[in-house]
C-alpha cells in the first residue's frame, strides 16, 4: 500500500501515470500530445481507465489530469535492437494537449552517449512512515549499452547499466518505475538531459539496475507517432546533420580558392 507519492525528486517534464486499477508509475513529456514511459508500466493498462497527471513540481500543488487516448508499447522487430519486454518503452497519446509553463515542460533529450555525471530522479512511492530523501543521494555511474553488455553478459544491447554509488546512502525503493536517468553532457554544465527511463524501482536492493536507452528508440518513436497521425520528430545524432551551404562555401574558399558571393 502506497501512502504518499512525492514529486520532490522530479523534473518539470515528469508525470504521474495512474490507472483505475490503482497502478501508478512515472513518465516523461515528449511534446503536448505524447508521453514516454516504460512498457512494463502500461502492459495491462486500458487507455479508457488511464490518466496522466502533469504539474507535479508546482509549489502550490496545481496538478492537472489528462485522459489517455491511446497506448503504444514497443513491439519487437520495429527497431535495430532486440530489447526485452521488461526494459522497453511505451508511448501514451493524450486526448487533450498539455499546456506548458514554468512547472510543465517538455523533456530535454540530447542523443549523445558521453557525459560528465548522471543521476536518477523520479516519483517517490512512499510507504507509511517513510520520509523524503535528498536528490544528491542518487548520483550514479552509467555504462553505455555496449559496455553494459560486456560487463554483464546476457544484457540486451539497448539498455544502460545504472550502477549506484555505494558511498551514498540509498534507501530501498527510493524512486518508482519510470524514473528518469539524467546526465550532465559536459563538465561544469548545469543542464540535465534525459537519456533513459528506469523500468524498476531505484535503487532497490541491487547494485546494478537496467535502464532503457531513449536513443535506441528514436526511429520507433517517430514511426509510431506518424502512424497515430501525431508525428513527433526526435533529435538525432549531430553526426547525421549536414553542414550548411554557407559552411561548405567557407571550406571551399579555404581549401579550393573559391570566392564567397
Beta strand count: 14
| Structural class by helix and strand composition | mainly beta
- Uncertain residue segments: 78-83, 238-261
Figure out the total of helices: 3
Can you give the mean pLDDT? Answer: 78
What does this structure look like?
This protein is mainly beta and 261 residues long. The chain has two domains: 4-94, Beta Barrel (Thrombin, subunit H), CATH 2.40.10.10; 117-215, Thrombin, subunit H (Beta Barrel), CATH 2.40.10. Helices cover 11% and strands 30% of the residues. It has helices at 145-151, 218-227, 245-255, and strands at 4-6, 14-19, 24-29, 34-38, 50-54, 64-73, 89-94, 117-121, 124-126, 139-143, 159-164, 180-184, 192-198, 208-213. Strands 2-3-4-7-6-5 form a six-stranded antiparallel barrel. The protein has a six-stranded antiparallel beta barrel with strand order 8-10-11-14-13-12. It is globular, with a radius of gyration of 20 Å. Residues 78-83 and 238-261 have low confidence and may be disordered.
Chain-wise SSE layout:
Elements: E1 4-6, E2 14-19, E3 24-29, E4 34-38, E5 50-54, E6 64-73, E7 89-94, E8 117-121, E9 124-126, E10 139-143, H1 145-151, E11 159-164, E12 180-184, E13 192-198, E14 208-213, H2 218-227, H3 245-255
Antiparallel strand pairs: 1-9, 2-3, 2-5, 3-4, 4-7, 5-6, 6-7, 8-10, 8-12, 10-11, 11-14, 12-13, 13-14
Provide a brief overview of the structure:
This protein has 261 residues and is mostly beta strands. Helix content is 11%, strand content 30%.
Features:
mainly beta, 6-stranded antiparallel β-barrel, 11% helix, Thrombin, subunit H, 2 domains, 261 residues, single chain
Amino acid at each position: 500500500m502506497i501512502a504518499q507519492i512525492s514529486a520532490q525528486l522530479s523534473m518539470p517534464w515528469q508525470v504521474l501515470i495512474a490507472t483505475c486499477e490503482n497502478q501508478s508509475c512515472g513518465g516523461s513529456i515528449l511534446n503536448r500530445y505524447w508521453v514516454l514511459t516504460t512498457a512494463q508500466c502500461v502492459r495491462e493498462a486500458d487507455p479508457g481507465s488511464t490518466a496522466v497527471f502533469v504539474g507535479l513540481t508546482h509549489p502550490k500543488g496545481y496538478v492537472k489530469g489528462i485522459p489517455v487516448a491511446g497506448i503504444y508499447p514497443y513491439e519487437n522487430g520495429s527497431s535495430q535492437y532486440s530489447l526485452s519486454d521488461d526494459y522497453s518503452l511505451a508511448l501514451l497519446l493524450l486526448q487533450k494537449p498539455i499546456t506548458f509553463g514554468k512547472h510543465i515542460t517538455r523533456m530535454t533529450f540530447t542523443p549523445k552517449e558521453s557525459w560528465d555525471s548522471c543521476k536518477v530522479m523520479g516519483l517517490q512511492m512512499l510507504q507509511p512512515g517513510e520520509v523524503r530523501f535528498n536528490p544528491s543521494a542518487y548520483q550514479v555511474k552509467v555504462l553505455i549499452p555496449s559496455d553494459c553488455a560486456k560487463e554483464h553478459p546476457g544484457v540486451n544491447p539497448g539498455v544502460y547499466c545504472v550502477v549506484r554509488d555505494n558511498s551514498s546512502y540509498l534507501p530501498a525503493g527510493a524512486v518508482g518505475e519510470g524514473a528518469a536517468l539524467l546526465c550532465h553532457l559536459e563538465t561544469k554544465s548545469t543542464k540535465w538531459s534525459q537519456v533513459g527511463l528506469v523500468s524498476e524501482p531505484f535503487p532497490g536492493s541491487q547494485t546494478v539496475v537496467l535502464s532503457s536507452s531513449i536513443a535506441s528508440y528514436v526511429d520507433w518513436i517517430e514511426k509510431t507517432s506518424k502512424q497515430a497521425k501525431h508525428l513527433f520528430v526526435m533529435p538525432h545524432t549531430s553526426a547525421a546533420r549536414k553542414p550548411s551551404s554557407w559552411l561548405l562555401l567557407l571550406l571551399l574558399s579555404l581549401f579550393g580558392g573559391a570566392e564567397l558571393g
